[in-house]
Write a structure and sequence with these properties.
It is elongated and about 65 Å long. With 302 residues, the chain is of the alpha/beta class. The chain has 10 helices and 12 strands. The termini are far apart.
């Protein structure tokens, strides 16, 4: 009897073990199926995420600072670029060429705008000169002035204070009021270098923007000043220099003396910049960008 009880208990234990093992095996298979399904789902989701990423629009910010002469170009280009890339915000400050390049060197902006070529020390500091347009510097007088043409030699004398009355240039007996830009202005640097009067000018007033010079000359009898060609309007007279008018043809031909580049400088080559900056320069060089340059009265470099 005792042997039968032991045998029955042994059989029961074996059966329990078998059933327990089968149950564990089934659970393991279920887990494997769940893991497989989960992996498939994850792979599908990853693929969907990658598809969304690959089809996403350009996003980010772009910051510029510098030349006041480049305000018209920058505002028009920014508006057009953001319309084509609604995920990007472009902001620009017009602080003068020198200040803009200092901001670039300090890493506080993506692009430094300069209405002149870069100096050797600026290039040595890592700034790269990217010429995006050409501009003529117009010499302007008030509307009542009778002088319409001036030699570059006489213009230099006017700015050095050696010629002080319009009668010396064939005009009326009226004192010449010499208006210029502030130190650090790209327009001033380019004007003085091109005319070879660097650090020799005698100014009656030094103003801090292109618009301020235009307005001051327009409202001041006997005044003379210099501004970016693209801002000249019918409130002033634009003088011929050495008999040459500041036109696109004359500038590209090199016949008009007072011309300069509009530079959007970067810290390092364009190829080293982030995707938004690269896209900005791609846009400037596109047909749409060239149309903007022409629309604001500037010249596309050749």
């Amino acid at each position: 009897m005792k042997k039968k009880v032991i045998a029955a208990l042994t059989t029961a234990c074996l059966m329990a073990t078998l059933f327990s093992g089968c149950g564990q095996k089934e659970v393991t298979n279920d887990q494997a199926d769940n893991q497989s399904n989960s992996a498939t789902a994850d792979a599908t989701n990853d693929g969907a995420d990658q598809e969304v990423a690959s089809g996403s629009e350009l996003t980010g910010t772009l910051t510029l600072a510098g030349s006041t002469s480049m305000e018209k170009l920058c505002e028009a280009m920014s508006e057009s670029f953001m319309e084509a890339n609604p995920g990007v915000t472009v902001t620009a400050e017009y602080t003068g060429s020198g200040a803009g390049l200092e901001s670039l060197a300090a890493g506080s902006v993506d692009i430094g705008n300069a209405s002149r070529g870069l100096k050797d020390e600026e290039k040595e500091g890592g700034s790269v000169e990217n010429i995006v347009a050409l501009d003529g510097i117009a010499v302007i007088t008030d509307k009542e002035n009778t002088v319409v043409d001036i030699t570059s030699e006489d213009l230099a004398k006017v700015y050095k204070g050696e010629v002080t009355n319009w009668s010396e240039l064939g005009g009326e007996d009226e004192a010449i009021v010499v208006i210029g830009r502030e130190a650090g202005s790209g327009t001033r640097d380019a004007f003085e270098e091109l005319l070879e009067v660097k650090d020799a000018c005698v100014y009656a007033q030094e103003l801090d923007s292109t618009g301020a010079v235009l307005a001051k000359v327009a409202s001041t009898p006997g005044a003379i000043g210099y501004v970016s060609l693209d801002v000249v309007d019918d409130t002033v007279i634009g003088l011929k220099i050495d008999g040459v008018e500041p036109t696109e043809e004359q500038i590209l031909a090199g016949s008009y003396k007072l011309q300069r580049p509009f530079v959007m400088a970067t810290k390092g080559e364009i190829s080293q910049q982030n995707e938004v900056v690269k896209a900005w320069f791609d846009y400037i060089n596109s047909e749409e960008g060239k149309a903007v340059i022409k629309k604001v009265g500037l010249i596309i470099p050749q």
